[in-house]
Task: structure prediction
Amino acid sequence: MRSLQDAFDPRHNSIGFLRWLMAFAVIFSHAGPVAGLFGGVDVGAQWGAETSLGGVAVTGFFFLSGMLITRSMMSTRSPVRYLWHRVARIYPAWFLVLIVTAFVLAPIAWVAEHGSLGGYGSVESDSPWTYVFNNFTLILGQWSIAGTGAETPATLHGYNTWNGSAWTLMYEFACYLGVLVLGFVGALRARIVGGLFAAGVLLLSTLQAVRVGELSSAFEVLANTQVLHLAAPFAFGALIQLYIEKVPFSDQLGIGMLVIAGLCWWRGGWFLVGQYAFAYGLIWFGTRVTALSGWDRRADLSYGIYIVGWPVMFLAAVLNIQSAGWFVYLLVVVVAVHVYAYVSWTLVEKPAMDLKNWMPAWLGRVGGWKPVAPKDGGVGVWARVRFVPLVLLVVASAALVAVGAVR
Result:
């Protein structure tokens, strides 16, 4: 039997498609509580599942991140470069969605509820001026904006937030930092150490799943069960990457694992067995189905869709688009998030990624390193000005953080 190392081609796989599909699954799932569809709950909760469709998708996101981020750290030239790659991928798009939410989407909701913009910028509680400051680190400190959306199904169901999907980003970046530490101390080169650490996380997750002992008494952070719900698939992905040459790869095993995952999601045992079966099935599909390898060649929309999905759905619910039926509501949301994600990728995310390996000349002189120019952007006007929106975004974000700190 072939190993996953032999089968997996990092440049020719369908992981980009899977990320897009899972981002779409999160939107579809969250339409339940946000718009009052599907009985007002996330898809999956209707039949008593341990996790929703969105939860299944997030498991997939964290597993793939665990595998690919560990791979990145193992091949990077330095821990600093690795961290810069992660910051460049996560933060620019996050700054953009914070600003768009506070100064485009929420004002539209305010006008729909009050008839004009009067008073929006002067509210004392949950001000739009503090929204960026309270959330820019990924640690969410402000959920609502100026009381908008108070009568939406989401708020009535207890989700009074303009971005109910973004809470996972803090945990994902924490996992990135965990991989950074393991790489820095050599635990990824001496993979037995990294493997034992990952296995320890999986053991704690198993104990939590079978409710053995009170984990929070030993580790206070584990009082929040979501920590292990997210850390376990990430650790599993890291473990798969560390021992990728020993992981068997076959169609029978991949299909079988997806069947097991489906049964566990439906009948129970997701956090004990199902999430790991799903993870294997996911990487099997991503490796096996190469016909979709060009899915994100022109634009990687998955991250933009994920972080803007809830804000767009929340605004659509404020505008009562769901009254036209679930199909119209989801169609409007899907079109809107794809348009936004494409603009975000073009103006912000892709230029930021073009700076992944950038080494400015002045920094090279200081450290005695060879300067590296930004990735070539082709020819034409856009190639010359493509960093302007990114620079303006960083300046605007810094200004809003300063304003929020003062307020």
